[in-house]
Amino acid sequence: MPWAKGEDFIDLKERFRELQIEEKPTITALHIPKSDLIELLKALKEEKGFKLFLDHSVIDFPDKKPRFQAFYILYNVDERKRVIVKTWTDGELPSIEKLWFAGKWAERECYDMFGIKYEGHENLVRAFMWETYQYYPLRKDFPLEGYATEYLPSLNEVLWGDNLQGLMNYDKMHTPVPTLEDLEITEKRRLKKKAQIVLNWGPLHPGTHGTMWFLFDLEGERVYQCDVILGQLHRGVEKLAENEMYNQFLVYTDRMDYLSALCSNQAWVVAVERLLGIEDLVPEKAKYIRTMMSELQRINSHLLWLGTYALDLGALTIFLYAFKEREKLMDIIEGITGARLTISYPRVGGVRMDLPEGALEVIKAFIKRFPKELKEWETILSRNRIWLRRNIGVGVISKEDVYFYGLTGPVARGSGVPYDLRKFEPYDAYGWVEFDIPVGENGDVYDRYLVRLEEMRQSLRIIEQCVNVLERMPKSAPFFAESPDPKKIKLSLDGIGLKVPEGEIYSSGENPRGELGFYIYSTGGIKPYRVKIRPGSMYNLCIYPKLMKDRVIADAVAILASLDPVVGEIDR
Amino acid sequence: MEGVLAWLVITIIKILVILGIVLGIGAYLTLVERKVAAHIQRRPGPMVVGWHGLLQPLADGLKLLTKEDLFPRYGNRFLYNLALVMALVPATLVFAVVPFGPEFEAFGIKIKPILTDVNVGLLLVFALGSMAVFAIALAGWASNSKYALIGSMRKAGIIISYEVVITFAVMGPIILAGTLSTYDIVQKQIEQKLWYIWLQPLAFVVYMFAMLAETGRVPFDIQEAEAELVTGFTVEYGGMKFGLFPLVEWYVEVLSLSAIAVVLFLGGWSPINIPFLGFVDPLFFLGPFSPYVWFVLKVSLLFLFVLWLHWTLPRYRIDQITETAWKVMLPLTFINLVLTAIVAPLVWR
């Protein structure tokens, strides 16, 4: 079990008299009053070994007093245990920035979305919205359609008048959008200029791999300080999740980390299945198919990373080589699922459809040829002197930093922390297949590069084993679970009417970019009450300003590409 | 009087021929580069305009010429345009001292296929080469953009470091030939029956490095570094003005420096050399055109070598480039100088 046991915390009970331990099959929670929160977190971090910070957010209960329930999810990497710490507040919380830097970013997000004030937070600015935005969108009393306060007619309406009829006649009042002045205020709040020039890197810049906005304070070419402005791709996925059915929300997970849609789908589906308690009912075939498809997607995602990474360092040819292989993978995925980018192939209870005829042969042909290609690229890059000089010793992340900044995925593994949820908390068929976790030694950019390359090889191993099992399965084997009690749990491919009992769960999957976790709080019914998504990319990015200190601009692309963030997941 | 008139006519013809060839080839080298790059990257490259994309440079030129001419706000318009001139003119002027072949006689007049055979030809080449830094610094400064400024400062840093290196690298051939005139250097190599690359391999390697750095080719293309600086100092230029910088840097300069490399190390227009013994000419059937073909062949080989590197390697960082220049390349050239001084009497005889 991934959750810590209640008896682990018995000794803490003497020190914290008001500590309550709640043990459920899906979660282990420690309830503590706000005043003792920091002490407890400190004790957990330093004495109990819960060093890795996973996530922090709050749940809004407008009818209760105090109104917000805050939760902190921590992980003990050595003993593979997870715990959640909960407290109640009415709008103020002590900041945990001294304990975990990642908490700083999580707190900024809470401040942005719920209006929670954090005492002792060094730089409490909004995470996604601009500074002059007045509302807190994730509060329950914020309407789904927003407050339409701005008069924003379209160009056609301005030029030709309002002559559209019926459904085409949209409302001309819209929710506020940031003006240039707003963005300027936001920028000023983020970074106090100390050096020579402030270089705006983004929001649209080829090196940022998406719509991120970096501010570099430069002394010549040396970066004196750096900050990030997020939110250009913010779509309020968490708000949407509260208003969609469980299977409807599946398509939004595609659009978060759009490069690894299948892995995100799988993480969400597994989370809901665990909450329903039907993880064991999912047929073996569906589990193997899901695992195989996610590993294909992982290779696909790593290929895009390799291509853009090489491109950032000037090796354009590798980019085209990688994309050629990626195209083949896309074709395989398209042939099996019908979609290339936003896939939504898994479903709660199985997969959408069986494998088409010949799919396994195509995959077998791919895994036979792909290692040769990989080897060829490695001969071009891995021992290349220029490549080594650009990569070795750049962006070094120590083991302590991994915990302090809440890093996961290949970034954590590159620094020698073998944190891989496929091994630590096997979901689907990962418990039944053999593979290794590659870890780096120095934690620099080069190690992360090697780790990702090796991960592709390990993915191939997993796919090979899955293909072998799937080949031996009869064609008539079920690929969708049958509900034990259709009155209670209604499982169907479209997922309409799927009711989830009261409860909560934090379940996560190993995405190519880090841990994608879903904290689902259900009060029963067809929609979740609150979904907090733990975006691996966002916490991986939060170390970036630290890594960039005293480096030159040319390293900015190398370090950023080695962290491999995807803005869709950061902003949600 | 008649002599002066003939000289004037011949010079004008030479200028027109050289300009036509250089700029025409420069434009068409874009196609060559795209085709080479495409085949390295396992794709066909431009295929639509003309047979195998043969008319692509014309289409590109037309497109660039018809684009809107944008000018950045608060930029300096005079310097902005001056940068273009400063980029194009010195780079093209280098061809004035490139000898394309041996002296020949037409209509009773002896003609050297070189525009001006000045006795300080090489000095002129490197003087003009260092003028390139002005163009880039001006372009970066006048466009009033931080990206452009950083890009141009990087490039200025590189050029200043590698100017020193390249000057010391060509010292070896100059000592061996005992002259600074490009035409005479080739003549000396033919007389001594020796391509200087056989005695100056170190200098040749260093020269090629410096050439890549000066022309901003991979692995030294940090002034454009499209991932970090978008396109560096050209970011605020549009249309043909934008097209001119890569044309000058990547094609005209690479061509001129390759031509100088051929003159210095590969014996100019002479055919294949067996050191100290003589020359073997498999292209003897071309008669008087054989030297020109040899010259073009050597230059294209060097150019293709540059392209090959460009589409294979990643790029260095600015501090690593300048570090290599001062800490590795410069000492190497000094060693080469000492070695040359020891072997030079052998060659002089």
Descriptive terms for the model:
heterodimer; A: 572 residues; Beta Polymerase, domain 2; 2 domains; 5-stranded mixed beta sheet; 3-stranded antiparallel beta sheet; 17 strands; 16% strand; globular; B: 349 residues; mainly alpha; two-stranded antiparallel ribbon; 12 helices
What does this structure look like?
The complex is a heterodimer of chains A (572) and B (349). By secondary structure, chain A is an alpha+beta fold. Chain A folds into two domains: 6-119, 2-Layer Sandwich (Beta Polymerase, domain 2); 237-571, Cytochrome-c3 Hydrogenase, chain B. Chain A is 41% helix and 16% strand. A five-stranded mixed sheet of chain A has the order 1-2-5-4-3. Chain A has a three-stranded antiparallel sheet with strand order 10-11-12. In chain A, strands 15-16-17 form a three-stranded antiparallel sheet. In chain A, β1 (20-24) and β2 (27-31) form a beta hairpin. The radius of gyration of chain A is 24 Å and the shape is globular. The two termini of chain A are 29 Å apart. Chain B is mainly alpha-helical and 349 residues long. Helices cover 65% and strands 3% of the residues of chain B. Chain B is globular. Chain B has a two-stranded antiparallel ribbon. Chain B has helices spanning 2-40, 56-65, 77-93, 121-142, 146-169, 171-177, 182-191, 201-215, 226-229, 239-265, 290-310, 318-348, and strands at 104-106, 109-111, 272-274, 278-280. Chain B starts with a helix and ends with a helix. Chain B is built from twelve helices and four strands. Chains A and B meet through β10, α9, α10, α12 and α19 of A and α5, α9 and α12 of B.
